[in-house]
Each structure stands twice: as structure tokens, then as C-alpha cells.
């Protein structure tokens, strides 16, 4: 059954090629092809997660060449969770995109290529192969962001292209340093060889700084986040949700895998200055991202800066590197993907149905669009960390892990972040449920000063009406944000064998 490990990468690549080939002859075949692939992806990754839960780690050798010389895919508790998360979120956003668009076959080919890249990043056991999948992910993301109908989407994609290429190049340079020091690229073998070389070796320390720094760019950790706000804002709403939910999420996972699997907790113990530096930079990202989010008046930009804050919290948890903190970081990583993807989809539904894209435009939204408003509110409350939501479960474990690990700076930072998160979402909730609505959609758009088509690639609510499927996906995300708050034992049982190997 280990052969299944290659399917999450192979299926989307075949689907992307098929969408391009068939799309030359037939219009709009991209979505049906993508839908079939997405269903297969969910089935395969769910099966892999079940096999890992019942039988332990799965290793697949590509082309039959054994590691460390060959490349392998590894499915353990952590990678299985991330791969399944990628498949589920991609399928959910696909339901939304069926009506919201874009609709070209080329768009869905790019969509599937991104799915392949993200799945590969989740499953690869090779440091250089991670770079390859990182580049596939980046190229597909650039194209998806540029698919917006305004020139500003192309500019945002170009900014991401430049900054993302720098980040990937820094990571690759770090991989080169690690290879020079050890002569291997397999992650598990790298961990053994780095220990043999010595954690105090300058080459090893430089490799850590470069690899973690490059992935921090991709994760959008402050102050390396500058590509993110415009990319999220000017991309089509379906792309914003897809990218916001998964791209930085999987990059954060890759950063965690680099810290815990490649360099290990022994490296952190031998280099407390580097560990402390990562924790403090992550803490700075938490506060800066929250503060910047409070200052925003445009909803998608506010959500983008919120991601900067939340990923800072996740990286801090992985840098603390004890079992409780890593458990909390993993839960928050999964929860953030569901919550933030749902928030972007809800914002898209609201924009299509009411024209509102700014904080003031949300006045009286509960009366104009009650179902999206309630779903948005539930997701926002979960993001704050109110029990019993998944936001609370993740943050609670991170706090406990910080206390256990003596990383006391994380505790006030997390509390401050929760208060700031409550501040910027509280403004929206007050306008949605308390403030009087503007008289009509046209008036709301004028009051906002918002060009809906320019900001999101959306023409109008009449041209692309909201479907029940779009609303259903948003409601499902809200339900999951609450239901996953009770899934702590499931996360623990799936992660326990993995944590026992990487944390001693």
C-alpha cells in the first residue's frame, strides 16, 4: 500500500496536463477534470492518514532507488495531516470556484499544479526535492494571483514572484551548505550526518539560518511578509482563499519539518541563541501582524495581516520544540487553514451578494446576508481563540508548551495577539450585527470607495450570482472550526509516534 504515497503528487499533475490538452478542443472542461482529481485526492490522502494511524509511517522510494542516494516520499502523522488538509481545502475551494470563477481550463491546470506542489512539499523526505516542489508551488501561485482581471493583480503576482524567488534561492543556498557538510540530501540521513559533523560547526549553523530564513519568506513572517497583502487582496476571491489557506500553511509545515526532522531538537539545544532568535522573530511577527491588521479598512488586507500574526504563533510553537507546543502548533496550523480559508470565502460571498469589501461596508450585513454573516462571525470568533473552537485548542496547547519550555515571552505575546485579534474582528462584528445598514448596495460601494471588479476580479453580483454550493462551503468551514475544537485526542493519537521520533 506504500505505492499510494505517490498518488497525491501524480494525480494533480496528470489532471493538469489533461485539462490543458482537452481544453484546447473543448471550453470549460477544466472544472470537471479538477473536480474528479480533487475527489480522488481526498480519498487517497484520507486512506494514507488511516494507514499511518493503524500501521505507522509509510516510506516510498521513487524509481526504486533507496535513500540516501534515492529520493523518497514519507507519510507520517504530521505529513498525513497536512496532505489531507491540502486535499480537503482544495476540494472545498473548488466548489466555490465553480460559480465564482475563473473558469478557463488554464486556470484549473494551474490550480491542480499548485495542489501537486503543495502535496509534494507535505510528503517529500528529501531537502532538495522540497525545493523543487517549493518552486512548483511558487510558479503556480504566481499564475493564479495574476488571473485577476485588474492590472493590480499582475503587479501583486510580480511582487510575489520576485520576493518568493529570493526566499526559495536562500533556502536552496542553505541546502547546498548542508550538502557540502554532509554529502546527503535525505532529511533523515541529514539529521544523522549533521550530528556527526557537529552542531557547533559554522557550516551547519549557516545552513540552518539560510534554510529557515528562506522558508520564513514563503511563510510570510514579519518583516518578510511584504508580498502577501496585495497578493491576497487583488487575486480573485477563490484564489485568495486557496492561497491564504494553504500556501503559507504548507511553507510553515516545511519550516517545522526542517527544524524538527533535519536539524532536530538536539541542534536547538546546542544552539540556544538560534532557537531564541527564531522564537523572538516569530513573536515579533505575531504582534506586528496583529497591529497592522487593526489598522486596515479593507477586509481582505485585514485578513492578510492576520495571517502574518497567526503564522508567527505557529512558528514560535515549532521553535519551542516540545511535544505540547508542537501539538498546539500543528492544531493551529490546521485550524488556521480552515478558519482563514473560510473567512476569505465568506468575504467573497459577501462581496458578490452585497458589494461590501471594506469594514464600513459591512454595516448591517446580518440583515442583508444573514447566513454568510453568521458563518463569518463564527470563523472570526474561532480565530480569536474562544472555546470550544479549534482556535482555542491550538493556542491553549501552544501556551502550555511555552510554559513547559520556559519560553515565557510567548505567553504575553499570545494574550496580546488574542486581544488585538478581538479588536479587528470586533469592529467587523459590531458593524455586521449592531450598526444600521446602508440603504443599498450601490450606496455601500460609493461609501467604501471600492471598485469591486478591480479589487477581486468580480464583475457584479448579477453576472456571477452566489450559489448554494458557495454558501454551503462557507457554512461547512464554520462548522469545522467548532468541531475540530473537540478533536484534540485525534490529533494526539495521530501525531504521537511522529513526535516520539523527532522530540526526545
Question: How is the secondary structure organized here?
Answer:
Blueprint: H1 7-23, H2 30-55, E1 58-61, E2 72-75, H3 77-100, H4 105-123, H5 127-146, H6 151-182, H7 187-197, H8 202-219, H9 228-234, H10 237-270, H11 272-294, H12 299-320, H13 323-354, H14 365-368, H15 370-384, H16 390-405, H17 410-433, H18 441-448, H19 452-456, H20 468-483, H21 488-502
Antiparallel strand pairs: 1-2
Characterize the overall form: globular
Q: Assess the beta-strand content as a share of residues.
A: under 5%
Can you tell me the number of structural domains?
1
Biggest β-sheet: count, sense, barrel? 2 strands, antiparallel
Structural class label: mainly alpha
- Rounded mean pLDDT is 87
Number of helices: 21
Strand order of the largest sheet: 1-2
Q: CA-to-CA gap between the ends?
A: 30 Å
Give the tally of β-strands: 2
Helicity range: over 70%
Helix and strand sequence: HHEEHHHHHHHHHHHHHHHHHHH
What would you report as the Rg, rounded to the nearest angstrom? 22 Å
The unreliable regions are 441-447, 449-464
